[in-house]
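User: Sequence in, structure out. Go.
Assistant: Echoing your sequence, followed by the structure tokens.
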Amino acid sequence: MAEGGREGETPRVGALDGVRGLALAAVVAFHAFPALVPGGFFGVEVFFVLSGYLLASLLLGEHARTGSVDLLAFARRRLRRIVPALWVLLAALVVAAPVFAGADVHRLPGDVAWSAGGLTNWHLVLDHSSYFNQLGRPPLVRHLWSVAVEVQFYVVCPFVVLWAARRRRRTVVRALAAAIAVSAVLLAALGRGADPSRAYYGTDSRIGALLSGVLLALVLPDALGRRHRTEGQATRSQAARTGRTADRLAAAGTATLLLVFWLAREDQHLLYPLGFLAVQAATAATITGAVAGRAARRLLAVRPLRWLGQRSYGIYLWHWPLVALLRPGIDVGWDPAVAGAAGVAGALVLGHASFVLVERPLLQRRPPRLRLPVVARPAAIASVTLFLAGVVGIVVNLPTNDPIVDTLRAGEQVLASQAVVEARPVVAPAVPVATTALPATTSTAPAPPAPTTTARPTTTAATAPVPVAPPPTAAPLPSVAALPQGRRPAR
């Protein structure tokens, strides 16, 4: 997406622009018409392989000419290629999102900050944002995860190439192959869940495609016989034979890519990593045909593909926000095909404007300098300063809390308080007790007898009546005659 450049780079190959245009068409079609091109997300893998190839070829050529790599010049070229167009997009989102996506604007400060720093992919990982599940409005910067992966690769790429240029070719090939295998293992391990977004976003699991491009840049010149020749230039028959082989490779690679774009599904776990490795190999074959083939070079350099490839970075930057803001049946009452076509058309227009006004002037060998009259310079500086201050002010004052989450939390608090009230025991009101003392009386009356109640035995069908013992009978008194003589009672 952001590989192209002019200063310090080899002449542009039109067929490679065609490869880039093919990858861009797959990605944009996947976002705008997902049912039509369900495997279009693999277009990003094509971008990665192509980016690694172009960057490594540039740095290897510089090392072959000068014996070293100018790291500061490389960093300046990359920043000039990536940052201006990216920051223009972020500034436009800061202004437009509160108007067109007010309910989701709380996410924008974090999205803009992480994206401006080239860390969008890790922001999405930490935020558990899915690339494949469509629930609510997706982040407007979600597509910038791939730009972040490339920016992070820019940090290590010069050192990888410097190391590779000073080692034996066999050692370098083995080391790069091992690194690609490790990345593939991570891709397989992280892609086993129900949602493989972590595997899709991670720099660790996706750097294998970029390293595949570096490996291709190392082995392709030797395979084509263009370096370290000892027998002079290749004969015409050898060149023709090499061209035919490259054309066959390009045909097989391009056919494989088209089949994957058409048939693959993101929920097919076999794709992690086999599908990605197959796309890397197919892209390498297509690049070989674009560089060394004849028929493939002509076919891939057709004008529509070249036009898309040259503007791929700007179109890629602008297409996703338009698609996310034109959801059919939600944001607009259009048919899905109409909404997708409108998003694609807007991306083509804005991407072309970005290429003409921002990217191409900065990619020239000597970027143009804006010449203003001395009187107008203070006004221009003040205008730019006010614009930047306004953008920063909008970002600072944007809400950072999700209104839906706040509403749900408030509802939970209300329900919790009601549950506490219902759980309290009900206490009857206390009855006041009279405390007035009765006057004392001198006469004492006998207390009335307590009422007696006779308990009636109750019997049930299951319990037999308990027998009551008869009261004991008193023994009869002896008669007087029966008493002894001396014991008669006195009268």
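User: And one key feature?
Assistant: The first helix runs from residue 14 to 32.
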